[in-house]
Design goal:
The protein has 149 residues and is mostly beta strands. Helix content is 0%, strand content 58%. The protein has two domains: 77 residues; 65 residues, no CATH class. It is elongated and about 55 Å long.
């Protein structure tokens, strides 16, 4: 774990860690700072970026439910939420009106990914199906246009 990195152009990066080895702050080459916060399981829950003068530029956060990520908010304030199936696999990812669904076979391998842009059943962008070798073999696009690969 480096504490300081000096570059040939005279700039530096500095790092500060917790007693658990978690990165707490990072001072970047341009003087801006990134501050990290963690939960009791050492999972990152907040990342804040400040300019050289200490003015906040953006803040990203995550919320966990048990061991699973419930939602995360990016620097623009957009929230992405996660839904899991009985085995703890991601079954849905929702960000605004966009929805991505994941389907798995009996062995837990992903077999299909569906992307929707609206609330209707047919409001989809695409559907990707996977072979056992995990290669995409069929793409279904709006209006049931198909292209096999």
């Amino acid at each position: 774990m480096p504490l300081k990195i000096s570059y040939p152009d005279g700039t530096n990066e500095e790092f500060r860690y917790s007693i658990y080895g978690e990165l707490l702050t990072k001072t970047q080459r341009n003087g801006s700072k990134v501050r990290y916060s963690y939960d009791d399981f050492s999972r990152p829950i907040v990342e804040e970026i400040f300019d050289r003068a200490g003015k906040p530029l953006k803040k990203c956060s995550k919320k966990y439910s048990g061991l699973l990520l419930e939602y995360e908010t990016d620097g623009e304030g957009l929230q992405k939420s996660y839904t899991y199936d009985y085995a703890g696999r991601v079954s849905e990812v929702r960000q605004g009106d966009a929805l991505t669904k994941y389907l798995y076979d009996s062995l837990g391998r992903p077999v299909e990914e569906q992307r929707f842009f609206g609330s209707g059943v047919l409001d989809y962008i695409g559907c990707w199906q996977f072979k056992i070798s995990r290669r995409i073999y069929c793409r279904i696009r709006p209006c049931n246009w198909r292209r096999s690969e």
